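Journal club side-thread
Mid-discussion, someone asked how the predicted structure for our own chain would compare to the paper's figures. Pasting it here so we can look after the session.
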Amino acid sequence: MLDDAEPPAPPRPDSASPTRSLSVTAQLRDAILAGEIGPGEKLNEIRLSARLGVSRTPLRTALQALAAEGLLEYAPNRGYAVRVFPLSETLDAFEIRAVLEGVAARLAAERGPDALVCAAFQRSLADGDAIVARAATGALDIDAFRDANIAFHDAVTAAAGNRRLPELVRLCATVPTASTRRILTLDAVQLRRFHDDHHRIADAILAGQGWRAEALMREHVLALQAVLLRALPEGTLRR
């Protein structure tokens, strides 16, 4: 949780610049999508300003931008709080993500990834291989797997060569629990299963098997949705 951390150095002189505002927006967005700032949590401007080392001007600009994205809610005299999404919206976002990323995988296979995308695949898969190997010995690093997961999914979307797809996928990420940046608690077996999915999807893309790449990606995303449902408390409303 960002608010409870010890404040760093005073704000920098350039904290009101547009670049600084974009940086603060990105930091807060990542913290929300990763679950570091939880649903319903109120954002204290003074503490956040001190924690991030910026003045309140770029911070307020960032809060307004995230409210416009739908990640925050504003109430007069109460300020900003992280939006709470009902389960139905989370499930809808997963289903849309499955369709969009499935299309991205198919287009990537039909187009043929370039050298940069192939290198991105290789890096993310190699990182995942190392994480899975460590998990087998009891060293489960969910944060590292999250980074490898983001890199893989971003590489697939980039390989599609469609400028609109990344924007549409990002819209799904405005529901934090359906974002690639939010990795649910996984055990070593589940982590291996999802990483093996990445290998199968990459193999299908590199082999030019568009139909197979699309089906595998859809199944992969919906399997994450199933993990979320199984993690819900007994009796929780599913839709």
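Post-session note: Residues 3-16, 234-239 have pLDDT under 50 and may be disordered.
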